[in-house]
Write a structure and sequence with these properties.
This is non-specific serine/threonine protein kinase. This protein has 11 helices and 21 strands. By secondary structure, the protein is an alpha+beta fold. It starts with 11 loop residues before the first strand and ends with a strand.
């Protein structure tokens, strides 16, 4: 075994080796000016091929492009040493990395949530730049002396989901890779990175990768079938919220379409769990499509509006706008004063004028966002200042509309009193003979004849509703008799039911391999070699009807197992899929896991 030789580099003094990988060594250097420690990654001279050189250059370019992000390791410069070896000069993160820490200690739930949001921010930033990492794992997450993570090793990263011209010795890391990548169905995409990130967070909670068996065979050839067929296991930790268990299982689903579509979506879900647990809120640090830092609040938004900017440029004169105008004149001159807006009459419970002015853009500090909304930092430095859209002023129970729509709008109160051009002295007295002058008295009760006239209409509506209710009940009861007792989710639905009969499920609690597990066997009398068995699992029969967690077995397979928490109750159903046909779901089978 050859000893790693550090190269002589201008302006850098070698200190000590830091580590060695399959095709590169990492050394600690001290930069002379300005004086600071840096990490230098150098390609090994042995086996240095043009393909590896090209890959290394791509890694340098990728990391340099993303280096401004606070949770991606910064690259200072790159070059080629005098002996012909390419190198990268990067920010130095002292040991241990996350893999080393996970072997030595168990992370708290709060720290895992915070780390997950930080890393999801970094991964989302890479994805928006068109870069798929493809090798997210604990060993590729360094930790600064201030405790913040730094994602590194973009060596097999690619653009647009295509892995081009890489040498055979460059591959993914099996324990954290999704099944579609391991078995050649995909070269990796955003959902593949989401899977690997979830597997990384799972390891921080448990201390091993998700499909490792303590004391068992954990070689590559033993892990791959488990990753393909076994459902994502529970962490087995009582302090992990149920919502976090569900999210990790969803993010490691066998079907990529069942996972969160983006790293940003995963980050928002982690934020929601963080808020439900009353932990300190962690900011999601991303840019919008125009390259500006921004704040995202509320539920996930569409791809056309992923990030709400801190401030919006003032629209051109006469241009329509869909939001209240921003306070202050536009750049380049003072704005013309807006046309006067009619002032609505005061109504009990409406906001005072002073507060209305604040709502329309005064310098007063806006209130913090509600707990139900995620928070994204407005600056890449991780600052916590939150910019909010100005609240809408409410008058008379109707929100003020922006722009010209607010002008000349008549205001009506709930009491039915008119605020139009008629006088304010009340209703005119009846004229001679009991006649009233023209114009409605707003407080005059309706004649009873009108109510009687509505009675046939009301009875007709009630009758129609009863008929509809009976039809719905009949359809539901018929479907119940046909045996389709479990609703199916939209994702993963292979097509219209067309196979007769239904499979049967047998569940046996065991404790093989040191962990409580449920051994599951599915039988179907007409099973063919290419049929696929789809299982669905939940905590009870009600959760199965609400969707549960489902996954397919490999074609022709009818047996699998799920690692569960001691004493946990699990219910299972199954169906058989053949092309675009499927059977009805089986009857549910529920068992309780062993406790010792």
């Amino acid at each position: 075994m050859s000893t790693a030789i550090p190269p002589d580099l201008d302006g850098l003094d070698h200190v000590q080796p830091l580590g060695s990988g399959g095709y590169a060594d990492v050394f600690l250097y001290e930069q002379q000016m300005p004086r600071m420690k840096v990490a230098v990654k150098v390609l090994k001279a042995d086996g240095l091929t043009p393909g590896i050189k090209r890959q290394f250059i791509d890694e340098a370019n990728t990391m340099a492009q993303l280096a401004d992000h606070p949770y991606i390791v910064q690259v200072f410069r790159s070059g080629t040493s005098d002996d012909g070896r390419p190198y990268l000069v990067m920010k130095y993160y002292p040991p241990p990395n996350l893999a080393q820490r996970a072997r030595a200690e168990r992370f708290s739930v709060e720290e895992v949530l915070r780390t997950g949001i930080h890393l999801a921010s970094a991964v989302e930033t890479a994805h928006r730049a068109g870069v798929i990492h493809r090798d997210i794992k604990p060993a590729n997450v360094l930790v600064s002396q201030y405790g913040t993570p730094g994602l590194t090793d973009f060596g097999i990263a690619g653009r647009g989901g295509v892995l081009e011209d890489l040498d055979d010795d460059v591959g993914v890391s099996v324990p954290w890779a999704p099944p579609e990548v391991l078995f050649g169905q995909s070269n990796g995409d955003a959902r593949a990175d989401v899977y690997s990130l979830a597997a990384t967070l799972w390891q921080l909670l448990v201390g091993r990768s998700p499909f490792e068996v303590p004391g068992g065979d954990n070689t590559t050839y033993a892990l791959m079938p488990r990753i393909r067929s076994n459902p994502p296991p529970s962490t087995g930790r009582a302090d992990v919220p149920a919502g976090m268990e569900r999210l990790l299982a969803q993010a490691m689903a066998k079907n990529p379409l069942a996972r969160p579509a983006t790293a940003l979506e995963l980050a928002r879900s982690l934020q929601q769990i963080e808020q439900e647990a009353r932990f300190a809120r962690t900011a999601i640090v991303v840019l919008d499509e125009q390259g500006h830092s921004g704040d995202v609040g509320g539920p996930p938004v569409s791809s056309q509006e992923r990030t709400r900017l801190r401030t919006s440029p003032a629209p051109a004169a006469g241009a329509p706008t869909g939001a209240p105008p921003v306070a202050g004149p536009p750049a380049g001159g003072s704005a013309a004063p807006p046309p006067p807006t009619p002032t609505p009459p005061p109504v009990a419970g409406s906001q005072p004028a002073a507060r209305a002015g604040t709502a329309m853009g005064s310098s007063a500090t806006p209130p913090p966002p509600p707990l139900s909304q995620p928070v994204i930092a407005g600056q890449l430095s991780g600052g916590r200042s939150i910019a909010q859209a100005p609240p809408t002023r409410i008058a008379d129970g109707v929100a003020d509309l922006p722009g010209s729509f607010a002008q000349g709008t008549a205001t009506t109160t709930r009491s039915g009193t008119s605020t139009g051009s008629t006088g304010t002295d009340g209703a005119a007295p009846p004229g001679p003979g009991g006649e009233r002058p023209s114009g409605k008295d707003p407080q005059e009760p309706r004649p009873k004849g009108i109510q009687v006239g509505l009675l046939p209409f009301v009875l007709t509506v009630v009758g129609v509703l009863l008929v509809v209710a009976l039809i719905v009940a009949a359809v539901w009861w018929t479907g119940r008799d046909d045996g389709e007792t479990v609703t199916t989710s939209t994702s993963g639905d292979p097509g219209q039911a067309g196979l007769g009969g239904r499979p049967e499920v047998e569940v046996q609690p065991t404790s093989e391999g040191g962990d409580p597990r449920m051994s599951i066997t599915v039988s179907y009398e007409s099973l063919q070699e290419d049929d696929v068995v789809r299982l669905r699992a939940g905590e009870d029969e009600q959760s199965l009807e609400g969707g549960g967690t489902d996954w397919p077995l490999a074609a022709g397979e009818t047996e699998t197992y799920e690692v569960v928490s001691p004493g946990a109750r699990r219910c299972y159903v199954a169906r058989v899929e053949r092309g675009d046909q499927r059977t009805a779901w089986s009857a549910p089978r529920c068992e309780t896991a062993v406790t010792g």
